Amino acid sequence: MKPPKERIAFQGERGAFSEEAARRLVAPGVAVMPCPRFEDVFRSLKEGTVTGAVVPIENSLAGSVHENYDHLQNFELPITAETSVRIVHNLIAPNPVKFSSIRRVFSHPVALNQCLNFFASNSQIERVPFYDTAGSVKMITEEKLTDAAAIASAVAAETYGAKILRKSIEDDRENYTRFFLLRQPQFTKKFGPKPASGPAEWKTSLVFTTRNAPGSLFRALAAFALRDLNLTKIESRPLRGKPWEYLFYLDFLGHVDSAPARNALNHLAELADFLRVLGCYPKGA
Question: Is 188 a catalytic residue?
Answer without folding.
Answer: no
